[in-house]
Write a structure and sequence with these properties.
Layout (H helix, E strand, L loop, with lengths): L1 H27 L5 H23 L1 E6 L10 E4 L4 H10 L4 E5 L8 H6 L4 E3 L5 H16 L4 E3 L18 H8 L3 E6 L15 E7 L9 H19 L1
């Protein structure tokens, strides 16, 4: 019962917190730089994470930060909940996230999302969507930004094995930068379909980076195997 009350309280406060940033949109539309908008959106995310911690009792811990490359890289992260969609903007400042275009329709969040260094894809476009994803990733890497890909393509139950869909191996082959595998267990605390958020500590594990130069298939096999082993370890 207490978990439900805390989660509902978070929903209310999160709605009010988001509404504040919605009220800022008309002001920000009058000539403010993307850098300022991105800074404000990160403030929104940080505030959301504080609310989760203080109200729900849901925090997070990062492990293996020494594995993060110094320069641009391709980040491959498993996807279990809305949490990493939000937190990735704080975990990886200036990251270019490969995301489906449907997210742009979300009120307030979608407006800020459009002004991030995002790489939006339309899955209905097939191979054309793949080409746009590669072009967007190449542009982000050229600007010194990391590129974040959810290789599973959608959120999955925390008990489902990690498996990559087509696309990330082609980005790897084309760009020649390291791949940083990242594993989260957020689905244990924030389910796929929403529901009550549960108290606890989400683990964000940064695994050893995979150097460029392998074939796409070799990279996928190496990354997915390491991520699956870590998923089982952190639960």
């Amino acid at each position: 019962m207490m978990t439900t009350i805390r989660s509902k309280t978070f929903d209310i406060l999160f709605g009010l917190w988001t509404a504040v940033f919605g009220l800022l949109i008309p002001v920000l539309m009058i000539g403010h730089s993307k850098r300022i908008v991105r800074g404000i959106s990160r403030l929104w995310v940080r505030g959301t994470l504080v609310l989760l911690d203080r109200v729900v009792g849901l925090g997070y811990v990062e492990k293996g930060r020494e594995n993060r490359p110094d320069g641009p890289c391709i980040i491959v992260m498993n996807h279990q909940s809305t949490w990493e969609t939000l937190a990735s903007n704080v975990l990886f400042p200036n990251v270019a996230i490969v995301a489906k275009k449907e997210l742009l329709r979300v009120p307030v969040f979608g407006w800020y999302l459009r002004r991030q260094p995002m790489i939006t894809i339309d899955r209905d476009l097939g191979t054309q969507a793949l080409r746009r994803m590669i072009d967007g990733a190449r542009a982000a890497i050229a600007e010194g930004r990391p590129v974040l890909v959810y290789p599973e393509g959608t959120r999955k139950d925390p008990d489902e094995p990690i498996s990559f869909r087509r696309g990330v191996e082609m980005i790897y082959a084309k760009l020649g930068v390291p791949v940083l595998p990242v594993v989260v267990n957020s689905g244990r605390f924030w389910g796929i379909a929403g529901g009550a958020r549960r108290p606890g500590t989400i683990t964000v594990s940064y695994l050893p980076a995979i150097a460029p130069g392998l074939s796409g298939a070799e990279m996928v096999a190496k990354a997915s195997q390491a991520m699956e082993a870590e998923r089982l370890r952190i639960g």
